[in-house]
Amino acid sequence: MTVPWSGAMDLHVEGVRKTYGRGSAAREVLTETSVTVRSQQFVSIVGPSGCGKSTLLMMMAGLLRPSGGQIRLGERVVDGPPVGLSVVFQDYSRSLFPWMTVRRNLAMAAAAYKLPKAELRQRVEHALVSVGLPGSADMYPWQMSGGMQQRVAIARALVVEPTVMLMDEPFAAVDAQTRADLEDLVLRVRHEYKITVAFVTHDIDEAVYMGDRIIVMAAGPGRVLAELNVDLPRPRDQVETKLDPQFAELRSEVFRLVMRPGGVKSTVG
Ligand SMILES: Nc1ncnc2c1ncn2[C@@H]1O[C@H](COP(=O)(O)OP(=O)(O)OP(=O)(O)O)[C@@H](O)[C@H]1O
């Protein structure tokens, strides 16, 4: 049931708008927005609080309907959660079921795929190895640190062998060291599983470090302000990449864009 990878599986956001509320309470939070996330590309999305990043991501995930325009994954219009698409949220403590073992949490994510038992078991084990948690299948989330729980959330996204992974500020709740580890983990698994990634973050350094491209959004109403290519060599390295003059240039450019009037809370430090 998993969608096989194909070069045609680009994610297209085409003239999408979103209005919340009706009548006099209606508010357009995202205006005419078009973005293409190429197959196997890593696209970072940054912008001020409230500019509609999560709204855009939820529409990409098929969890929210656009008020106008359309979203396509390959040739298919996204009108519900597509097969082969996973979402990782910031709040792992609310996205994992605490009363279920790690194995059951992962298996739940693949329930709709109706995999044979042996294959499901093998995928769960493989996903846990990929996130550096082999042998943890029988633990409960509450027995784990925050960083470990977010690894489980990532493993859960991997169990469906996704072609696309959408991540909404996935590391905002963990400490700096864990955050760096998880960044590198995501870069590694995205390469291993050949996944297309759209990654929302408030952290400009993180956006540059992770991305092949950065989409900078503006608020009032939300829209795409700029798109920048990141040509930093891969594999990225937490020390070497950040010492690259190109990194510093891009970081400043994105920072300037998001700090324009109507701008942003950022975590550039
Ligand atoms: N279900 C909803 N009903 C009404 N308004 C909403 C709803 N969800 C979000 N909004 C509003 O839409 C705007 C965009 O919200 P969204 O969460 O997409 O922005 P964001 O850029 O992800 O913000 P942040 O960076 O703070 O997470 C905000 O003003 C928010 O209050």
Care to describe what's here?
Keywords: ATP-binding, Nucleotide-binding, Transport. InterPro entries: AAA+_ATPase (IPR003593), ABC_transporter-like_ATP-bd (IPR003439), ABC_transporter-like_CS (IPR017871), ABC_transporter_ATP-bind (IPR050166), P-loop_NTPase (IPR027417). This is ABC transporter ATP-binding protein. Pfam families: ABC_tran. Residues 11-244 form the ABC transporter domain. The protein has 269 residues and is of the alpha/beta class. It folds into two domains: 11-84 and 163-258, Rossmann fold (3-Layer(aba) Sandwich), CATH 3.40.50.300; 97-161, no CATH class. The chain is 33% helix and 23% strand. The chain has a six-stranded mixed β-sheet, sandwiched between helices. A four-stranded antiparallel β-sheet has the order 2-1-4-5, with helices on one face. Strand 7, helix 6 and strand 8 (196-200) form a beta-alpha-beta unit. Helix 3 runs parallel beside helix 5 (146-158), helix 4 crosses helix 5 and helix 7 (204-210) crosses helix 9. The protein is globular and about 50 Å long. The termini are far apart. The model is unreliable at 1-7 and 263-269 (pLDDT under 50). It binds adenosine-5'-triphosphate. Adenosine-5'-triphosphate binds next to helix 1.
- The mean pLDDT is 91
Along the chain, the helix and strand elements come as EEEHEEEHHHHEHEHEEHH
Give me the side-by-side strand order of the main sheet: 6-7-8-3-9-10
CATH class of the largest domain: Alpha Beta
Query: Overall 3D geometry?
Result: globular
The end-to-end span amounts to 45 Å
What Rg, in angstroms, do the CA atoms define? 18 Å
**DSSP helix count?**
9
Number of DSSP-assigned strands: 10
Helix content: 25-40%
Structural class call reads alpha/beta
Low-pLDDT runs of 5+ residues are 1-7, 263-269
Bound molecules: adenosine-5'-triphosphate
CATH topology term of the largest domain = Rossmann fold
CATH architecture of the largest domain: 3-Layer(aba) Sandwich
CATH superfamily of the largest domain: P-loop containing nucleotide triphosphate hydrolases
Major sheet size, sense and barrel closure? 6 strands, mixed
Number of domains: 2
The fraction of residues in strands falls at 15-25%
